[in-house]
Design a protein that fits this description.
Number of domains: 7
Number of strands: 74
CATH class of the largest domain: Mainly Beta
Structural class: alpha+beta
CATH architecture of the largest domain: Sandwich
Strand content: 25-35%
Pfam families: Mucin_bdg, Peptidase_M60
Largest sheet: 6 strands, mixed
InterPro entries: Mucin-bd (IPR004954), Pep_M60_3 (IPR042279), Peptidase_M60_dom (IPR031161)
Number of helices: 26
Helix content: 10-25%
Protein name: Enhancing factor
Strand order of the largest sheet: 13-14-15-16-18-17
Shape: globular
């Protein structure tokens, strides 16, 4: 009997164990599932921007054990396309995929796998799949945000499923069973929901940086809701990879990359945000580093990949050597080093500039006729960055030895952008560390403008040493030094050595007039002032041939990637050859894929380079190329041989022979009209010059040199025709021309009917005053409405003065003075301007051009003519307004606080929500500080990321002259500062300071906030506690400034038996210094309980003494709980809103 019972127990235990760990049991069941479809983002595909587009797929809710068959088909008769079924696991060698449609297929693999069907893009018809579930299959454990995590793990534990799936809007993560225990107790996340929020943060930030959105009307900026697919792959390359249909950690686990915070996930996800134009293992890291920079703060130095996890000094030194010792070209730098360079540019330009570049590139790549090889990356990058930041990054890219076209360099100069330089290139070596710290810069190689360095007060003496073949060719011409649109120096070239005197350290743009028959260009266009004495050589190069004659031959390989180029430089008689890829095309292994030969005028081969499909030797060389020489080109795939911006020189033959002529390259087998082709190129180039007003009107523009030289290469009569056509563009204004805008006195004469003077406006730009004299006459009775007008606006575009002259209305005699300021704008209108408006520079006694509408910018001793559209529009100025809103967002973009400013009622309102701002941050995440015009704290609040706040709504008094300082660890996407009147957003940064004015907010800095000599402590209630022996409180004084009274409460007992004299005293005087209350506390006296109330007023003085003030006197602001300063004798005065410390 005992044996039978024992047997029965064993059997029951076995059955229980089996049931507890069994796979799910299904009866054979046919299921159907309608699959969602996605819009095909052709505008993204066109740029090579993949963003996991091939990753999106839909699960069947099951796991297919080894060798178990799955039968599936598509059953919607209206859907005509094919679908792809994938059986996925943790090893790509054990996976399979099959296409299917309405014909049923059956699949299996000898390994446990999870079946998915790839999502279809485009179309309106949704596919519907039908598949059979059998009792051999398992349920796939799936977790979505907000579900019960314990239930999820219980199901997974119960079924022992080999995989589980985490699904969110941005990604799907296939988790192997071996990671289940780790997933329950992740190192960096307290829950799966927190893991999901982390990835949401990554994807939303990457999307913002790339400039794509679900809510936009611009097609090329539209995002679509596809999901990345993330998995393990033990047979993958490297440590991890991003592929066309998934991204994976190279392991049988996802714990290291995907269940932990680290570089791997950021790096691989970033690959989806590259495009065909950007560098494969660098551009993705811009996203990754930017995310680390946003979240790690100063921890980026020890935990960031860019700075090699704590080896920042070594990384800085390596970059410095590349720049200043080796002077290596940017495209030869390593991956970390190239990232460093891109981050220097992006940090200075700002995230918005990086976003703008991505948006502009997508727009360009989707335009008709786009060819990626026609563009330089740094051309487009500097253009986009400049458009947003208003900075010229050309000098930095030149320091990098990065490739830029001369055209884009000049275009950047003629935008009036402020040039940017590397810090240690414009700061004395001994001062770099000090200034880096003072400017809060990450590295000694961070980028700065001259304005950034102004606070250092450092200057340097500058001498220009001019080198030129014939000095007389530039004698008496002019050199300009500019900082943006500000003219810093203007000097006449009178000798080969020119002293510029003392200049603030920094970088300046150099312009030189170019008006003689001989054509010269400068070898540098930027002046760097670094040392106390700076001797700078300026080389003027004599030019003989235009760059428009040069041509660049490009060899494209697999995927149309450029692997070699040959640049024809006719002026210097060189062919500059670069072979940049050793494996141009893997389909042509070790066989000739491309070839370049140079033949001299006798047919001798002077140079030959064979480029095999694989194992080709890289090269960077310059070969002699003269007029009459030939270039023989071979390409196994002739459609992949290109000449930039030229479609007439090459044939579809594998071999093309090009003759070098004075007008460029001519195919010996084609009948080309090079004269006409060059004229067409000239027209195109001239139209580009005309598009830039500053460039087209400048005597310094080197593009005009190129245009002139190109026209000189034409043959007659076309040459004469083109010179006539572009005579205005090429006219040589004499260098002695006066600047008509310079002068201290200007006048405007307004005449009307019978040429009678009805008004005169005089401007004194030395003393910045205007005077309007109006005569007692009717301007012109033919005109019943406005005949003439004067409008003066401030630097923000707000109206300061206006006068409208109605033609048929008689004016009274008047003389009116008008105060002016630098930066004001004046607009003069006259209906009969051609013969009845006269504009004069009275200083130089010359008449100025005039139109129906004439707008000017007022400066000291200068009246600069501008377009009316250049005047700021107050309704389009985010800083002008009466009401502003600051919204603070945290983790998951939840709004944890709002600050509203009402400048009419002079009040701020802060609304703090209950909760933690951002649990990833253990220190200050956001702060708000309001200070008065003297620098006193009016209100402060520090939001610790992982510390909960109680709900609070509070009003705060404001006045013009107050300062508002806001900090935010994630300002780019989680701090919004809005003008609520015109709905425009203001600038923001990790730290931003504004000064409050009567008309709005003005950007300021913490350095501009005064340090109060007699600080004010704002609040309505203050409590003073007087302690004595054994820290017993023997008296308290409560001051209520709202009720204008102080209440003194005295307790029973001896104050302090050790002191026989006055131990503490309270003296309250009114604003006339008349005593209204006085009390001395003798230490050994025994006092009775008592309470007295005293009236306070604005101006009242409260003087407190205490012999042991350091530890037995407390003065507390009851609103902020901050302690006020104290001493053995301290005096406070009651002022509006608080107490002011007097001594």
């Amino acid at each position: 009997m005992k044996s039978f019972v024992k047997f029965l127990i064993i059997q029951l235990l076995f059955i229980g164990f089996t049931l507890g760990n069994s796979i799910n049991v299904y009866a054979n069941e046919v299921k159907q599932k309608e699959l969602y479809i996605l819009e095909d983002p052709t505008w993204l595909r066109q740029t090579g921007f993949s963003k996991g587009l091939g990753h999106d797929r839909q699960d069947l809710g099951i796991i297919l054990p080894a060798n178990v068959q799955l039968t599936i088909k598509q059953v919607n008769p209206n859907f005509k396309g094919n679908l792809t079924l994938r059986l996925l696991n943790d090893n790509n060698k054990h996976e399979t995929s099959r296409n299917f449609n309405q014909t049923q297929i059956t699949v299996s693999v000898p390994y446990s796998s999870v079946p998915f069907v790839d999502t279809v893009y485009n179309g309106t018809e949704k596919p519907k799949i039908e598949y059979t579930i059998t009792d051999n299959m398992q349920t796939l454990p799936i977790y979505k945000k907000g579900q019960n995590q314990q239930d999820f793990f219980s199901q997974w534990d119960r079924t022992s499923a080999p995989f589980a799936l985490v699904v969110d809007d941005y990604f799907q993560l296939l988790v192997p069973q071996k990671d289940k225990a780790f997933m329950k107790r992740m190192r960096d996340f307290s829950s799966i929901d927190e893991l999901i929020l982390y990835y949401r943060d990554i994807f939303t930030y990457y999307n913002k940086l790339s400039g794509i959105s679900f809510d936009t009307n611009i097609k090329t900026n539209k995002n679509i809701p596809n999901k990345y697919f993330i998995k393990a792959d033990i047979s993958g390359p490297g440590g991890g990879y991003y592929g066309g249909n998934h991204t994976a950690e190279t392991s049988d686990s996802v714990a290291s990359f995907w269940l932990s915070k680290g570089w791997g996930a950021l790096h691989e996800i970033g690959h989806g945000y590259q495009d065909n134009f950007t560098r494969g293992e660098v551009w993705n890291n811009i996203y990754a580093h930017s995310f680390q920079q946003k979240n790690l703060g100063s921890g980026i130095y020890s935990n960031g990949w860019l700075y090699d996890y704590g080896r920042k000094n070594i990384v800085d030194s390596n970059i410095d050597n590349l720049l200043h010792k080796n002077q290596s070209a940017f495209n030869t730098w390593g991956l970390r080093e190239q990232l460093y360079g891109f981050i220097l540019l992006k940090n200075k330009a700002g995230d918005d500039s990086f976003t703008h570049f991505n948006q502009e590139y997508r727009k360009l790549a989707n335009s008709n006729g786009f060819n990626i090889s026609d563009y330089n990356q740094f051309d487009l990058l500097s253009k986009a960055y400049g458009e947003i930041s208003k900075l010229d990054f050309t000098p930095v890219i030149e320091s990098f030895k990065g490739k830029m076209s001369d055209w884009q360099k000049e275009l950047n100069r003629y935008q009036n952008y402020k040039p940017v330089a590397i810090l240690n290139e414009v700061v004395p070596t001994s001062k770099v560390s000090e200034i880096q710290k003072a400017l809060n810069l990450e590295t000694p190689l961070s980028l700065v403008t001259t304005d950034d360095l102004a606070r250092t007060g450092l200057t340097g003496n500058v001498t220009l040493n001019i080198k030129i073949d014939d000095f007389n060719q530039i004698k008496n011409q002019t050199i300009y030094l500019m900082n943006g649109e500000k003219e810093v120096k203007k000097v006449s070239i009178t000798s080969p050595s020119i002293s510029l005197g003392q200049l603030p350290i920094g970088i300046y743009t150099i312009y030189s007039t170019n008006t003689n028959n001989k054509c010269y260009t400068l070898d540098t266009h930027y002046l760097k002032v670094k040392e106390s004495n700076n001797n700078v050589t300026l080389n003027y190069k004599l030019r003989t041939k235009s760059v428009l004659l040069n041509q660049e031959i490009e060899f494209l390989g697999l995927g149309d990637d450029k692997f070699a180029s040959a640049h024809v430089d006719l002026e210097n008689q060189h062919l500059n050859i670069e072979v940049t890829s050793k494996d141009p095309h893997s389909y042509f292994p070790n066989e000739q894929y491309g070839k370049i030969e140079i033949l001299d005028t006798n047919g001798n081969i002077t140079y030959s380079k064979v480029m095999n499909g694989t194992n080709t030797t890289l090269e960077h060389s310059s070969q002699i190329l003269k007029e009459g020489y030939k270039i023989r080109l071979y390409h196994a795939e002739p459609s992949r041989l290109k000449i930039k911006n030229n479609k007439t020189t090459l044939t579809n033959n594998k071999t093309n022979t090009l003759v070098v002529t004075s007008q460029g390259l001519k195919n010996e087998n084609l009948s080309q009209n090079l004269n006409q082709e060059l004229a067409t190129s000239i027209d195109t180039f001239a139209s580009k010059i005309y598009e830039n007003k500053l460039l087209s009107q400048s005597n310094c523009a080197e593009s005009k040199v190129e245009l002139k030289l190109a026209i000189n290469s034409l043959t007659e009569p076309l040459k004469a025709q083109m010179l006539t056509k572009y005579k205005e563009l090429l006219k040589e204004n004499p260098t002695t021309n006066e600047d008509e805008s310079e002068g201290s006195a200007f006048s405007f004469d307004f005449k009307g009917y019978s040429d009678r003077l009805f008004a005169k406006l005089n401007l004194d730009l030395e003393n910045l005053n205007g005077k309007l004299t109006v005569e007692n006459i009717m301007p012109h009775y033919y005109f019943k409405d406005s005949y003439a007008s004067i409008l003066i606006q401030d630097k923000n575009g707000s109206t300061i003065f206006s006068r409208d002259f109605i033609g048929s209305e008689t004016n009274n005699n008047s003389v009116e003075d008008i105060p002016l300021q630098e930066g004001y704008y004046i607009t003069i209108k006259h209906r009969e301007h051609s013969n009845r408006l006269f504009v004069n520079n009275d200083t130089k006694n010359i008449s100025l051009d005039k139109n129906a509408v004439n707008s000017y910018k007022i400066m000291k001793n200068k009246l600069e003519s501008i377009n009316e559209s250049d005047i700021p529009n107050p309704s389009k100025n985010p800083y002008l307004g009466e009401k502003f809103n600051i919204t603070f967002k945290g983790l998951g973009d939840w709004i944890f606080a709002e600050l509203n400013l009402d400048l009419v009622s002079n009040q701020a309102n802060i609304d703090i929500k209950k909760g933690e701002p951002h649990v990833y941050f253990t220190d200050s995440y956001t702060s708000v500080a309001i200070k008065d015009s003297e620098g006193n704290d009016v209100y402060t609040k520090d939001f610790i990321g992982n510390k909960g706040n109680d709900a609070l709504v509070k009003d705060i008094s404001l006045k013009a002259g107050y300062y508002l300082t806001i900090t935010h660890k994630e300002p780019n996407n989680r701090l919004i500062i809005t003008n609520t009147i015109n709905k425009l957003e203001l600038d923001k940064d990790t730290t931003i300071t504004y000064k409050i004015t009567d008309t709005g907010l003005v950007k300021s800095s913490e350095d501009e906030i005064p340090v109060p000599s007699h600080p004010i402590y704002y609040g309505n209630e203050f409590n003073t506690v007087f302690k004595g022996y054994a820290d017993r409180a023997f008296a308290e004084m409560n001051m209520n400034l709202t009720e204008k009274q102080a209440t003194i409460n005295i307790s029973d007992g001896i104050v302090h038996s050790y002191f026989s004299d006055i131990y503490t005293s309270i003296l309250i005087e009114n604003s006339k210094k008349e005593t209204v209350y006085s009390k001395n506390f003798i230490g050994i006296n025994n006092y009775s309980k008592n309470s007295e109330t005293v009236t306070l007023e604005e101006g009242s003085l409260i003087t407190l003494t205490h012999l042991e003030s350091s530890n037995r006197l407390e003065i507390i602001n009851k609103e902020t709980l901050f302690s006020l300063p104290k001493s053995n004798s301290v005096t406070y005065q009651v002022v509006a809103g608080g107490l002011k410390k007097i001594n």
